[in-house]
Amino acid sequence: MATEVEEIRGLGHSVKRKEDDRFIRGKGTYIDDITLPGMLHMAILRSPFAHATINSIDTSRAAALPGVVAVVTGELMAQHNLAWMPTLSYDTQAVLATDKVRFQGQEVAAVIAEDPYIAQDALELIDVDYEPLEAIVTPQRALEADAPIIRSDKGDQKDNHIFHWEAGDKEATDAAFAQADVVVSLDTLYPRSHPSPLETCGCVADINPSTGQATIYMTTQAPTLIRTVFALVAGLPEEKIRIVSPDIGGGFGNKVPVYPGYVVATAASLLIGRPVKWIEDRTENLISTGFARDYHMHGELALKHDGTMLGLRASLLADEGAFFADAQPTKFKIGLFHIVSGSYDLPAAFVSGDGAYTNKAPGGVAYRCSFRVTEASYLIERLVQNAAYELGMDPAEIRLKNFIDKDQFPYASPTGFVYDSGDYHRAMELAREKIGYAELRKEQEEARAQGKLYGIGLASFTEVVGAGPHADYDILGLKMNDGAELRIHPTGKAILKISVQTQGQGHETTFAQIVASQIGIQPEDIKVVHGDSDATPFGLGTYASRSTPVSGAATAMVARRVREKAAKIAAHLLEVAEEDIEYAEGVFSVKGAPDKTTKIQDVAMAAYANFPDGMEPGLEAVYYYDPPNLTFPFGTYAVAVEVDPDTGVWTVRRMVAVDDCGVRINPMIVDGQIHGGLTEGFGIAAMEQIAFDDQGNCLGSTFMDYLLPTAWETPRFELHATETPSPHHPIGAKGVGESATVGSPAAFVNAVIDAVAHMGIRNIDMPVTSAKVWDAIQAAQGGA
Ligand code: CDP
Question: How far, in Å, are 250, 499, 658, 669 from residue 676 at the CA level?
């Protein structure tokens, strides 16, 4: 009898998120939920100055407070060679300041106490004698000849310049510009923003003095990478380090770097011999942990009168803060910003970037984007929009004219990428159709005649995700690959262990679906384990939308490896040769005899109970995936806004998003990712900025000052999709987590600019506040 086939809820099924059961019941386990016997609490004293010499630190009053166990300073850390630590970008960062403080909020000392309140109180009893120095708050000032040197600790550092980086062909680009009828240029700042995860950073460091076992519970997006980094940096034996990342309350790149708090808590636990908990508060998170963006950008686009693009120049100045701590692949000093040619068939491009130290917090994290791609996407999409105005063309038409055609893939970009697949024209046509582009343009004209300001903004983005192939991509020398381990139990249930770390993306569901699609076990029967470096294979973790392209691929490959063995067992059970076995939806059958079948569950039992002579028993495998290329999700966003000419307030009337992330594993989860990304993109366009005053005081240190969009401000999003598979990915998927944040800020800003472009306004730097819009209108009208 043929086996009854149950539909497997693998790829393409909107399976409800398995992890939500515990989250919606308030049963998640976050760092602060972890309590260990004998645990102490740590609080960190932070610098009130952006730049100051430390003359002395007197800890005696703090140490005398009852309940205080230890006060740690940079001097004490230095005795253990831990006053400084390496960053992910081959720079050094102070763990606790010794010579100077270099940004407001920098870690100066730490108190370890019996409870968190005593630790906090004791901070006020630490007396630090500071001598303030000039604070440098812009990279332009940092590079002036008379600017004080921020990194005086580095003997060879004679100025505040960190790096220069280039991509593309300068000569070819100059030649292209020489042929141009028109050159459009734009100077713009992509402001410093902050990922602001719901859960702040923290850890519980537990070093057992008798065994030397170090168990560190921490908010990290990359547990196995961090284990190896700890081993390399602290010289601890790697087998004795266990990094546990429980449920992570959002990361968005903020939980990739190693922060001083983790290091001090670990050192304190080692010295004291008791577990030490450190939990950051909201202000600490905002002022001291990994920022995003902060690129001052200049772009030039060379075009023919008919709108044909000939070449692109882009240069940028990166404000890196006091330590160069960007979390990005070693080779790429300005991240993957050289994707700046975007979705366009540009014959020539040249990109350069410089980094400068300033008196601000370090970071440069991949905040819901692949490394620095958001900035690139913003620049090209703003330039293209302005080119349309300059040439009197429709902003959609100029894009359609210059898009890389679907037949041109794989497409070699002028800055060195090979785009895997795409259909940009289709995404644009769908976006135009869904928003009713032609009618909106008519409405816009009518509105203008009545003194109203309507704008339609477009952005057609190309993301680059899934870092990455071993030839070019590493972090601290470790290649950016990921492992997956799959074990099928005798009863046909499975356990999948992965090196990526969910922070809300739903990996426990989608990765089970990937296995389901390959081997036919239902997702609810597959447990997905992550977040424990003792339990999972090595890999570089979750950020920059690399989970699905790299670890998702490893998962598909390991499931195929297990299926190969399962087919051998099925052949044994069905008494045929292996070549005669066919597989579909969890059922192995005999070619030409469809009635002779056996299910994966029966095969699993046989792997332990009835395997052929000479076969190694068991049904499990491990696979490490080294991607042959990155994946290139894309899409077109269309936004319609109304701008109030009297106040500058802009209101989103419609927002249509067309996203293509290749084959969708779970369409519902993808939609959720896009909703989140669009909200973050809107926030950046409209209100988010970590600003500083002239003294380097951080003005965005609370959620009263650093504005995040709530459900109240967030517009309604209308989502649509195309599905262009990635040809090299085992299941055709591309990443999605970040695309919406990458693509949407330009669409929102372009919409506002489109409303006022007829007044000659070509740029308003983000965040596009109503005050800035009003000012621009006044200036354009020659008003006050
Ligand atoms: O690296 P990160 O997890 O941030 O991003 P991602 O790989 O883009 O995936 C975010 C979520 O969307 C994960 O649960 C993915 O498995 C899911 N996804 C999907 O269902 N289909 C895709 N084509 C891409 C992602």
Answer: 11, 24, 15, 11
Which atom of ligand 1 is closest in space to residue 549's alpha carbon? 7
Q: What pLDDT does residue 363 have?
A: 94
CA dihedral 90, 96, 99, 103 (to 10 degrees): 80
Q: Which residues on neighbouring strands pair with residue 721, listed in sequence order?
A: 659
Q: Name all domains of the chain by residue range, CATH numbers in brackets.
A: 20-27+482-625 (3.30.365.10), 34-133+200-248+255-288 (3.90.1170.50), 292-409+420-467+629-780 (3.30.365.10)
DSSP 8-state secondary structure symbol assigned to residue 69: E
Residue whose CA is at the smallest distance from ligand 1 atom 11: 505
Categorize the per-residue pLDDT at 236 as very low, low, confident or very high, splitting at 50, 70 and 90: confident
Q: For 6-32, how does the pLDDT look when each residue is reduced to its tens digit (9 = 90+)?
A: 799 999 999 999 999 999 999 999 999
CA–centroid distance, residue 14 to ligand 1 (Å)? 13
Mean pLDDT along residues 456-484: 96
- Identify whether the C-beta of residue 516 lies closer than 8 Å to the C-beta of residue 10: yes
Closest by CA position to 641, among listed 376, 447, 772, 778: 447
Q: Give the Å distance between the CA of 548 and the centre of ligand 1.
A: 5
Q: What is the dihedral of CA 187, 769, 366, 427, to 10 degrees?
A: -80
| Average pLDDT for 150-178 | 97
> What is the four-CA torsion angle of 135, 139, 143, 147, rounded to 10 degrees?
-10
DSSP-derived letter for residue 765 is P
CA atoms within 13 A on the CB side of 258: 33
Question: How much distance in Å is there from the Cα of 670 to the middle of ligand 1?
Answer: 7
Q: What is the mean pLDDT of residues 613-624?
A: 98
Report the pLDDT averaged over residues 757-776: 97
Residue 546 Cα to ligand 1 midpoint, Å, equals 8
Tokens linked to 309:
């693009």
Give the Cα-Cα-Cα angle 720, 721, 723 (nearest 5 degrees). Answer: 175
Predicted confidence band at 232 (pLDDT cuts at 50, 70, 90)? confident
Q: What is the mean pLDDT of residues 379-391?
A: 98
Statement: residue 3 has pLDDT above 60 = no
Structure-block tokens of residue 147: 């600017």
Q: Give me ligand 1 centre to Cα 17, in Å.
A: 13
pLDDT of amino acid 5: 66
Active-site positions read 221, 368-369, 738
pLDDT for res 65 = 98
Ligand 1 mutation pick, 673, 674, 723, 738, max ligand atoms within 8 A of CB: 673
Distance CA 319, CA 140 (A): 9
Instruction: Determine the longest span between alpha carbons in the chain, in angstroms.
Output: 91
Mean pLDDT of 643-657: 97
Q: State how far Cα 658 lies from the chain centre.
A: 20
**Mutation to probe ligand 1, out of 503, 736, 741, 742 (largest number of atoms < 8 A from CB):** 736
Are 641 and 651 in contact, with CB atoms under 8 Å apart? yes
What the block records as the tokens of 603 is 């095969």
Encoded tokens for 237: 């034996």
3-state secondary structure of 769: coil
Query: 545, 736 in Cβ contact below 8 A?
Result: yes
Rounded to whole angstroms, how far apart are CA atoms 596 and 4?
A: 12
CA distance 398 to 184: 13
Average pLDDT in the chain: 96
| Ligand 1 pocket by Cβ (under 6 Å) | 505-507, 510, 542, 545-548, 552, 661-666, 669-670, 673, 733-737
Check pLDDT > 60 for residue 1: no
Give the number of C-alpha atoms closer than 13 A to the C-alpha of residue 121, restricted to the C-beta side: 13
Q: How confident is the model at residue 369, as a pLDDT?
A: 87
